[in-house]
Design goal:
heterodimer; A: alpha+beta; Cytochrome-c3 Hydrogenase, chain B; five-stranded antiparallel β-sheet; four-stranded mixed β-sheet; 16 strands; 40% helix; B: alpha/beta; Rossmann fold; five-stranded mixed β-sheet; 5 helices; 5 strands; 37% helix; globular
Chain lengths: 475, 157
């Protein structure tokens, strides 16, 4: 008699999701699926709106990465205006994008994943949280929260304190940088750098501590996709698309993000509302690819800040002769390299006189009826694609979010972990937590727009082929 | 000098989920002395540092169930902490401020039950009605904390 184990919802990720683990008659895992239950409908909601409203609207999609949507939407607007934005505006947009990375990466590592790492996957669930971390590693936990605060300070200095202010607009930004705030922000840099380096140091100890678990955390071949700068450097705001295979071969390069639809398709499955993007030349599902920190650090030729570049070289050494790191556990390592990069790059930008310029916005009429914006959100490449009429009214909207692009890989990760740890009889806390931790490598953000629904406890069901619940766990 | 902070949070694009922000915006418009107002999409851990200067913190949020309007004055951590998402609950925020900084802040959470969480930027009429009552309750509470200045300011508006 076959069985299905359901873990619903996955905790410590955004939105509502569940995991089902499908067993055969012998209790051996046959498949595992990561389901996303909420239908967004956001793209339809945007139709009929003015293009000029989109930056403000789309930044309200998400509470954790509003800035990424803000910037990407403004870039789609730039494309529709067919306009080049002033140098100052681009640098300020870069600055706020880095602040978003810093904030998001700090939350992912310090708040969400560190309890697993520093307290242990098998530690008591009641204490495996931020308070358990504060109890045993107070300074570490506080540093992580302060790093997030630094990111937030940058965002508030640039974008204002009001939530989701459409500071970035088609053609540039609305407000210049206040020179008086420069020193205030620069004063944060030494502490932020120290914290990022401390996190990297702790993570390397974790690599040793969990050396038996790590090989099962999404260790498989896939493509890697992201933006890189024209000279091959790690990119976060602009650049061209690169596709690398699991052996480290660049199989497509210098793709204009406007042409993303020629290369990437979106499949659907009946059991999930989240789409399954894939690389078209390899078809579905063979065209599975990963985006985000692991992909970005894998595909770039170098990082243009010294400390992060030194870490990238060590990261690449993990790949050995393969050329790329294929294990999703190392998303954490790549994320912390990017965290360090963000701090270094913010320092460089704050010291760049160009950010103090006052020419911050170019203006034009609607010059194209279609525009694409792309940038690297903390979780991966984000595309906003708008079709407008001559009055700038949205006729159609397509948003390709980073979490969806990792959907196939997240499913593969869950399956690998389930096959390794689930014995078909009992789901222990440690097993559950490892499966969830596998998903958390990707730091998915599914639908943070529904927080009012509240947080539900973890619910696990063991269901046989007759749909009878034969075991049930809540935590 | 005692100071109070009002934090309204929620997604203003999900209809009644934006009620916390709606309430906070209207309290901000009253310009009450010694009362600061903040709005945000959701609660984050770093807010634990932001609330330190205040004696009283009033949170305003939407709820999906329960009474049309409710106040929680006691904010204990649940026996088993709900594993946090990217956002945190007022209970976690309250305890983070205490655990990290030793703060003892009087925190209260006002909730207004939403009817619709669909995409949209308008509040349901009944939710707006409850939200208006919530503003009165919060102003009354602030009046207790700062008797003369608050009431004078409120009357002027």
């Amino acid at each position: 008699m076959s069985k299905t184990i359901t873990i619903s919802p996955v905790t410590r990720i955004e939105g509502h999701a569940k995991i089902t683990i499908h067993l055969d008659d012998q209790g051996i895992v046959q498949d595992a699926r990561f389901h996303v239950n909420e239908f967004r409908g956001f793209e339809k909601f945007c139709e009929g709106r003015l293009m000029s409203e989109m930056a403000g609207i789309t930044s309200r999609i998400c509470g954790i990465c509003p800035t990424s949507h803000l910037i990407t939407s403004a870039k789609a607007g730039d494309d529709i205006l067919a306009i080049e934005i002033p140098e100052t505006a681009e640098k300020l947009r870069r600055l706020i994008t880095l602040a978003q990375w810093m904030q998001s990466h700090a939350l992912s590592f310090f708040h969400l994943s560190s309890p697993d790492f520093l307290l242990g996957f098998d530690s008591e669930p009641a204490k495996r949280n931020v308070f358990g971390l504060l109890d045993q590693h107070k300074d570490f936990a506080k540093r992580g929260i302060r790093l997030r605060k630094f990111g937030q300070e940058i965002i508030e200095v640039l974008g204002g304190r009001k939530i989701h202010t459409p500071w970035a607009v088609a053609g540039g930004v609305r407000e210049p940088f206040e020179a008086s705030k420069k020193d205030y922000l620069l004063n944060w840099i030494p502490e932020a750098k120290e914290t990022a380096l401390l996190a990297l140091s702790e993570l390397k100890k974790i690599h040793t501590k969990f050396n038996k678990d790590i090989p099962n955390f999404g260790n498989f071949r896939s493509l890697f996709v992201g933006l890189v700068a024209k000279d091959g450097a790690l990119e976060y705001y602009d650049g061209l698309l690169r596709v690398m295979d699991a052996a480290g071969n660049t199989i497509a390069d210098k793709i204009d993000p406007r042409r993303y639809r020629e290369y990437f398709g979106e499949a659907t499955e009946q059991w999930s509302y989240l789409k399954f993007p894939y690389y078209k030349p390899l078809g579905y599902p063979d065209g599975m690819y990963r985006v985000g920190p692991l992909a970005r650090v894998n595909i770039c030729d170098y990082i243009d800040t010294p400390l992060a570049e030194a870490e990238r070289v060590m990261f690449k050494a993990l790949a050995g002769n393969r050329g790329v790191v294929n294990n999703s556990f190392y998303f954490h390592y790549a994320r912390l390299i990017e965290l360090l990069f963000s701090v270094e790059k913010v320092e460089m930008l704050l010291n760049d006189p160009a950010i103090l310029g006052t020419h911050i916005r170019s203006k034009a009429e609607i010059n194209r009826n279609e525009g694409v914006g792309a940038s690297e959100a903390p979780r991966g490449t984000l595309f906003h694609h708008y079709w407008v009429n001559d009055d700038g009214v949205l006729q159609k909207v397509n948003l390709v979010i980073a979490t969806a692009q990792n959907n196939l890989a997240m499913n593969r990760t869950v399956r690998q972990l389930a096959m390794r740890y689930v014995d078909g009889k009992k789901i222990t806390e440690g097993i559950l937590n490892r499966i969830e931790a596998g998903i958390r490598c990707y730091d998915p953000c599914l639908s943070c727009s529904t927080h009012a629904i509240g947080q539900m406890p973890l619910h696990v069901q063991l269901i046989n082929a007759n749909n009878d619940v034969i075991d049930e766990v809540r935590r | 000098m005692k100071k109070a902070l009002v934090i309204g949070y929620g997604n203003t694009l999900r209809s009644d989920d934006g009620v916390g922000v709606w309430v906070a915006d209207r309290i901000a418009a009253l310009h009450l002395p010694n009362v600061d107002v903040k709005t945000c999409h959701q609660l984050f851990p770093e807010l634990a540092a932001d609330i330190l200067p205040y004696d009283t913190v009033i949170m305003v949020d939407a709820s999906a169930s329960g009474e049309p309007m409710a106040v929680r004055k006691s904010l204990p951590l649940p026996e088993r902490l709900p594993s946090s998402n990217h956002n945190i609950s007022p209970e976690i925020l309250h305890h983070l401020a205490h655990e990290m900084y030793g703060a003892t802040i009087d925190m209260r959470v006002y909730t207004v039950r939403g009817n619709s969480f669909e995409f949209g930027s308008m509040l349901s009429p009944s939710v707006k009605e409850q939200a208006t009552k919530t503003i009165a309750l919060i102003v009354a509470l602030l009046q207790q904390i700062h008797p003369k200045s608050v009431i004078a300011s409120f009357m002027l508006n």
